[in-house]
Amino acid sequence: MEKNLTQIQKEVDHWVQQYEKPYFSPLSMMAALMEEVGEVARVMNIKYGDKPAKGKEDLMNLQEEIGDVLFSLVCIANSEGFSLNDAYLQKIEKLNNRDSSRFKKKEEK
Fold first, then answer.
1. pTM as predicted
2. Secondary structure of the chain in the HEC alphabet?
């Protein structure tokens, strides 16, 4: 079942609200996000870089680690009270306007 960003944000908020302290402090959430991004980097370095796998790193899953990053981002957005959908739309608008000629495009055939 596919979900949009708004549905994902609501689902995460519903899940965390069962706890006394649903969201960690902003700095703790940022640290958690950086930890998760580091795990993505480790998987990518093992898979495509020069880092040899050892032990449990052989079992690490890129999709799972990216899911952890997404969950961390959703928690930050929820805690700060903004829509990831709106953040995404702002980014796309910036790419289409400010950065529209920044990168070389494929030649049309």
1. 0.85
2. CCCCHHHHHHHHHHHHCCCCCCCCCHHHHHHHHHHHHHHHHHHHHHHHCCCCCCHHHHHCCHHHHHHHHHHHHHHHHHHHCCCHHHHHHHHHHHHHHCCCCCCCCCCCC
